[in-house]
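Tutorial, part two.
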Amino acid sequence: MSDDLLSSSTTLNRLSWLRPSQSFLNTIIQLPTTRWILFNNGKHLIIRSQNNSKPTSSLAYLTTQDVEPLLGQKPYFGQAKDLGDLIPDTKPTHDEHHFRPTESIRHRGPRVVFLGLHETGERDANSLPSSDFTDPESTVQKLQGTPYFSMDISSIGLKDDDLHRFLGNTILGQKGNNLIWSEPKPLSPWLDAFAAGVFASARSMVDWNQRNKV
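Running the prediction step on this input gives:
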């Protein structure tokens, strides 16, 4: 299992054998448990609050419902060249656990990174075994934990008013949280080991995608 972990501190299972599957990604992205870490031109979204007159910060985890206005038209993954069309899904067998590399491609919208699954509890017979994987959609039913995605929204080119409106319409924004874009350094003292590991992985992978556009 260690090959599928982003790091020992995050315990995110990368589900490497599922990552190229558009069926899997299009299903898992819609789960109500799915959470997002957003960046805007390298700055990350945080919650800034006052605690005994001293400001504190924490990562802002958004839902897919929150970020849907930024994702563009479905399907989100496996986009064919024509708008709305889907690349056909392959069906691997027990002897062939792989998909075509371009099957989960996004031709439109900001690049999206699936960081992995934060599994809850101990891995047991009900955990997701790669050797038994045959169908992406039914496999989602076996997932126990929180899927994490990330993206940098700077490529969308939102104006300040639109960006402010977007943040205000998120679940966190509607609850009165102060959502701001921040450089990494001010956040570091407030992160626990898990959040720090997930953030570091998200920042690294999103930055790589931004620097390696095709």
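Residues 2-211 form one domain. In part three we will examine how such features are distributed along the chain.
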